[in-house]
């Protein structure tokens, strides 16, 4: 990123990723969001997996929602911050209106206003 290039809106981009990709149950809408929010050949790093490409990331998001049931949602746990192409957003997840079952942070490399690489960092369970 050059010194004159404007910083992306990290908070908007990472919140939209949570809502429009990881909370979206409709595969068509999720695919459209991936095309808008992600670079052409993104990579997502999960604790035990590396996922390459928009379609594969969409499949992972859909499988998570299916696995955890119809009320499961990801929610931002604060505002995203970032600079020089790196943004982070803390989040929490669980059933809508129910207890939080998992927390973590998304860290994203952003270029030209899109996610190039996404790291999903899970917090250790309490206790």
Automatic annotation (TrEMBL):
Positions of the SnoaL-like domain: 21-117
Membrane-spanning intervals of the chain: none
SUPFAM superfamilies named among the record's database cross-references: NTF2-like
Pfam family, any one: SnoaL_2
Gene3D superfamilies named among the record's database cross-references: 3.10.450.50
Signal peptide: none
InterPro entries: NTF2-like_dom_sf, SnoaL-like
Name of the protein in its database record: SnoaL-like domain-containing protein
Organism of provenance: Belnapia rosea
């Amino acid at each position: 990123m050059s010194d004159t290039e404007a910083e992306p809106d990290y908070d908007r981009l990472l919140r939209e990723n949570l809502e429009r990709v990881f909370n979206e149950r409709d595969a068509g809408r999720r695919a459209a969001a991936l095309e808008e929010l992600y670079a052409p050949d993104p990579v997502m790093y999960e604790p035990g997996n590396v996922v390459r490409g928009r379609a594969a990331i969409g499949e992972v998001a859909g499988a998570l929602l299916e696995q955890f049931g119809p009320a499961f949602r990801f929610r931002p746990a604060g505002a995203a911050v970032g600079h020089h192409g790196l943004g982070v957003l803390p989040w929490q997840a669980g059933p809508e209106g129910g207890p939080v079952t998992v927390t973590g942070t998304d860290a994203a490399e952003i270029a030209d206003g899109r996610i190039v690489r996404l790291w999903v960092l899970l917090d250790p369970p309490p206790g």
